[in-house]
Design a protein that fits this description.
Oligomer: single chain
Radius of gyration: 18 Å
Number of strands: 2
Largest sheet: 2 strands, antiparallel
Structural class: mainly alpha
Helix content: 55-70%
Distance between the termini: 10 Å
Length: 250
């Protein structure tokens, strides 16, 4: 089995410049499901909430959670997550879910609790961008973590909050594969998307050897030292490198 290359700035710059392809990336990454949503609605709150649900269940095997996310957005929400939440349609969703399960350990009751949290959160606002406008990224992570707490997406200090950091990257970065929905937020303030696989790839760079919030901060600082304006393009490069390695192994 091929060994992983030592991760350096120069390697990731090369990967990002020569190997990253947006259509290929979307075909295997959960962001591709969000792009499918955007083909059916241009309502910002639809996109913000839909992307949040996709991120929430983005764990396990992509070949399983991506179709599950697509079913959620299309079949359960009718491509309009904002209306689904505002009108309380979630109370009648997943009526035929096998064993009351939405995805893996996420059951229907927990899903509905998350939806109720979001329904309360969006009262009086038109977009999540509006809600988060004056808040630093760390506070945005904490707020989203509280909304999604029943689904166990992690909390700062106890986990790397991978799925939340990934979601905020989707909404904020100005370049593909990210969507730049939140125009006023600064990509320089994003946090790295840290999980076990990322830790394995970057272990030679890190003092922290567990996929924790401290490891997330450490990798974020490295990315910022390499590119203070758009540090998370190195996250995209890492994912591209990992996907290309998987193709080689297969």
């Amino acid at each position: 089995m091929p060994t992983s290359p030592t991760i350096t700035k120069e390697l990731l710059d090369e990967v990002y410049a020569r190997q990253f392809d947006i259509e290929t990336f979307k075909s295997v990454d959960p962001c591709g499901v969000v792009y499918q949503l955007m083909e059916h609605t241009d309502d910002q709150l639809d996109i913000e909430l839909g992307a949040l649900f996709v991120a929430m269940i983005s764990w396990g095997t992509r070949k399983v959670f991506c179709p599950t996310a697509l079913h959620m957005l299309c079949d359960e929400m009718g491509w309009h997550p904002a209306q689904f939440i505002r009108m309380g349609a979630y109370e009648h969703a997943y009526l035929n879910a096998k064993n009351g399960c939405v995805y893996r350990t996420l059951n229907v009751d927990t899903f509905r609790t998350v939806c109720r949290n979001l329904q309360c959160a969006i009262q009086g606002v038109n977009t999540l961008e509006e809600l988060f406008a004056s808040k630093p990224t760390i506070e945005v992570i904490e707020i989203i973590s509280n909304w999604l707490a029943p689904a166990r997406v992690g909390t700062i200090g106890k986990s790397a909050c991978k799925r939340i950091c990934m979601y905020i990257r989707w909404m904020t970065r100005k370049s593909a594969p990210d969507m730049n929905i939140w125009k006023q937020r600064d990509p320089a303030d994003l946090y790295a998307v840290m999980d076990t696989h990322v830790l394995q790839l970057t272990s030679s760079l890190l003092k922290n050897k567990q996929p924790t919030w401290n490891a997330c901060k450490e990798l974020t600082d490295i990315f910022k030292s390499w590119d203070p304006i758009d540090p998370l393009h190195y996250d995209v490069a890492l994912m591209t490198l990992a996907d290309n390695q998987n193709k080689t192994i297969q």
